[in-house]
Design goal:
The protein has helices at 44-55, 64-73, 101-104, 108-121, 132-148, 153-165, 179-183, 187-200, 213-221, 274-286, 291-299, 328-343, 349-365, 370-381, 389-398, 401-408; strands at 2-5, 7-13, 16-22, 28-38, 78-86, 89-99, 125-126, 129-130, 203-209, 246-253, 257-264, 303-311, 316-323, 412-422. The protein has 424 residues and is α+β, with helices and mostly antiparallel strands. Helix 13 (349-365) packs antiparallel against helix 15.
């Protein structure tokens, strides 16, 4: 058992790990199961919908109503499911939240874990597939979710920029798949994907709360899995790209536009330079004191929103602004000047201090959320990095202006994407 990194790790089997963070101050316990899969055009839609279909019912509690009644008996426990894209992986998750055993005077965590096991491992099977009624209902809902992505224009522009940036890599895929892929799913396809995932996917089980580690090892160890032949997934591939900048323009009937700049780096999650990249993003556009907000929005009055984000797992940064389409050229010029200014060392003490303060505050905020703790730890562990909040904040405190300038030299503009508003 590894106890050196905040989360205590117990290996339960080949590619099955239990991570436990004992937090005596938490009055509720959170338990989550994460399945790791490669991002794949063949499986992305099926894996994107599977957790929701499984949440509908199983052999013990065959309807959502029956499952909700069982959760209510566990003192109002809540079960959530979902899927996310992280690095080159598509990760399905099942999250159970319930009161701590200590406060209800009964071992409901062990009951909850058994419920979680039944939801995942005992789906309703009919005619060689998952329950057709549940599959068809969830397909309709999933199509609606996919269609809704275009409704928030800022989000849609970012998704399209990512799609173009990584057009030759699996990362271009959205974790829900496409509308066409979802419509082609059948109960049999879903059952095959579910069986394959149970057999092959690496599994991480996380538990956060006021728990007793030895008792957990006994309970979780007793929740046996089917025979497995798991795969070992590689770390995320981070590519700096080539020297050619692509410009992609989509037009849509609307009165505004969204300009998104996609920057690649050669900095992987496991590289020490990652911490300086957090700062680079913070100085550029991560906060209201950042250069994009001040120079594009406040001084030039060209945008009603201007900011940036950094994806440490995949090693890229996006800068974006919501603008009037007629200000495209002017906005693009000013946005590019901000990254050039950072390369030249134009970083004030106020920018450094404000960025450091906000980055550390963000890191500390994860301590209040069990799910945030899990996701933060999972993001690192899948890339071979595990660090506590104290270790992260210590690294952030040591970042210098020179560190930021150095990583800025390794940031290369890859894609200019513009969602241009046009009149009818």
């Amino acid at each position: 058992m590894n106890t050196t990194k905040g989360f205590q790790q117990v290996t339960l089997g080949p590619e099955v790990r239990l991570f436990v963070h004992v937090v005596p101050t938490f009055k509720r316990t959170s338990a989550a199961v994460f399945f790791h899969n490669d991002l794949s055009p063949e499986h992305v839609a099926a894996l994107g919908i599977l957790p929701r279909v499984l949440r509908r019912g199983n052999t013990l509690w065959p309807t959502a109503m029956a499952l909700e009644r069982e959760l209510a008996l566990l003192y109002g426990a809540h079960l959530g499911t979902g899927v996310q894209k992280r690095g080159d992986r598509q990760i399905s998750w099942f999250l159970l939240n319930l009161p701590s055993d200590r406060y209800v005077d009964t071992p409901i965590l062990s009951q909850g874990l058994r419920l979680l096991r039944e939801v995942i491992l005992s789906p309703i099977i009919e005619n060689g597939g998952l329950a057709s009624e549940y599959v068809e209902q969830e397909k309709q809902l999933q199509v609606g979710r996919i269609r809704s992505l275009i409704n928030v224009k800022a989000r849609w522009a970012i998704l399209r920029c990512i799609e173009e940036m990584f057009r030759d890599e699996p990362y271009r895929l959205h974790e829900l798949g496409t509308e066409e892929q979802v419509r082609e799913l059948t109960p049999q396809i879903l059952l095959r994907n579910h069986t394959r995932q149970i057999r092959e996917a690496p599994i991480d089980i996380y538990i956060v709360g006021d728990v007793e580690i030895n008792e957990l090892k006994r309970v979780v160890g007793g929740l046996s899995l089917p025979t497995r032949a798991p795969k070992t997934l590689p770390k995320t591939v981070v590519r700096p790209g080539n020297a050619q900048v692509r410009t992609v323009i989509d037009e849509e009937v609307m009165g505004q536009g969204w300009l998104v700049l996609g920057f690649r780096t050669d900095i992987a999650y496991s590289d020490a330079e990652r911490y300086a990249m957090y700062f680079l993003n913070g100085v550029l556009g991560g906060f209201v004191h950042s250069k994009l907000f001040v120079n594009v929005r406040e001084k030039a009055s060209l945008a009603y929103q201007a900011s940036s984000s950094y994806n440490a797992n995949k090693g890229f940064m996006l800068a974006y602004a919501g603008i009037d389409p007629k200000y495209y050229d002017q906005t693009l010029e000013i946005m590019l000047k901000q990254i050039d200014a950072i390369r030249q060392g134009d970083i004030s003490d106020d920018e450094m201090n404000a960025t450091r303060s906000r980055l550390i505050a963000q890191a500390l905020l994860t301590q209040d959320s069990p799910l945030a703790q899990m996701i933060t730890h999972l993001s690192g562990s899948m890339e071979g990095v595990e660090e506590t909040t104290d270790e992260l904040t210590a690294r952030l405190k040591r970042v210098t202006k020179k560190d930021i300038v150095d990583v800025a030299e390794r940031v290369r503009l890859d894609t200019i994407y513009f969602l241009k508003g046009v009149s009818r």
